Amino acid sequence: MDNTIPAKLPLYLHGSWVQSHSHEWLDVTNPATGEVLTQAPYTTEDELQRAIDSASEAFQNWRETPVPARARLMLRYQELLKQHQEELAEILCEETGKTFEDAKGDIWRGIEVVEQAANIAALTMGETVENVASSIDCYSYLQPLGVCAGITPFNFPAMIPLWMFPMAIASGNTFVLKPSEQDPITPCKLAELFEEAGAPRGVLQVVHGGREQVDFLLEHPDIKTISFVGSVPVGQHIYRTGTDHLKRVQAFAGAKNHMVVMPDANKQAVLNNVVGSSVGAAGQRCMAISVVVLVGEAQQWIPEIRDTMAKVRPGYWKDPKADFGPLISPTARERVLSYIANGKAEGASCLLDGSEVKVDGYPNGNWVGPTLFADVMPEMSIYTDEIFGPVLCLVNTDTLDDAIRLINDCPYGNGTSIFTSSGAAARKYQHEILVGQVGINVPIPVPLPFFSFTGWRASFYGDQHAYGKQAVRFYTETKTITARWFDADIEHAEHPNMTIHLK
Fold it and tell me: Where in this chain does the record put each Aldehyde dehydrogenase domain (predicted)?
């Protein structure tokens, strides 16, 4: 893998890296310094068409590639990703601002999905029933769909592309990837390694751009599926437009994740976990904890939560003492600052204010420090909206039932957790809560890849979720065969040259 970053980021079309002929380019900047790292093109319609045509052509051969050969490609790919994990992490840090350990985690979680894709033979096994009727057998196959597309967000430029194209390609499809225009360098490096692993020409394409390029993919008749991760408004647009054009769509959208703290919880475990899960990655995670619900006497822990949060600070990724990095852009920073101002105006108690935080040596970084609000009410914008920054809200309830009602009234359903030493309380919570991913004494319950990422309600639009068995179902179609053979034909098969005279 070549670690140099070109002045203009190329497209990956038909197995070659080529410069776009676009007249529109977007600066890709380091969010900690403001330095321009490269420029990404707004891919032209002709180039998008070329990507789709190449993927369609490649599909004709790739779909016939034996399943073990597809699995071996994924085995080679995951090994290359492991070998280059630290190099990839450094690039990821430069374009996202993440700390080095966070960046390595981003890549590692993607590697785990590639490892699962290497298990594609077992994941694509069909079903068989003998003698569904007299001398009739029934069996099914999972077959690939064709050209699939993925639209990925800025906050996980390694993990989320690796959620998508390895599972789709291992299932026999080809793939067009449109990464976030804010940090597209890491996805290009992923494609470089995929090529090095032996991916056939045209199986993967990488294009760049914004809404116009996304809409082209959503509306193109040769694109069979759309996978998306991003905000609620964009997710709704992706889902509506894609399904209007008769495509399969999985659109992962926003979140407002709650952690319930019971009075019998391990206090130190709560303090250790609530901070990292709320401000880690500068809060730019769809599974971040943004609300802590303190039940009963757990409300007495507010001063200790404040003191623990006050110890963490943002910083540049090369600083080993930095706990998290900057926000992705000046626009993102201004948005978070507006919510902090709203929270104060709406009457919440601001126990920690990160609005004016500075990082020595990096005056142009998009910094926001850890921010903590208490006395937060459900009608406040800091509660209702996904802030996507290092801002934590504390809400008080008297009982676990009150906490469950509060969370179930929230429109989002991505992730939640409960900290308690009571098995009965934990079971009640996991059973009654209307959220797709539940942690018990685990703050961010992202499933490992042999399960699926299962957000609910306004956090997800579609039917089949990412990675795991559901991803294989999303990227394949089921063909069912009902077969009947007649015993009388056995004699003909044994004596194929025998002449039969019919009177």
Answer: 17-481
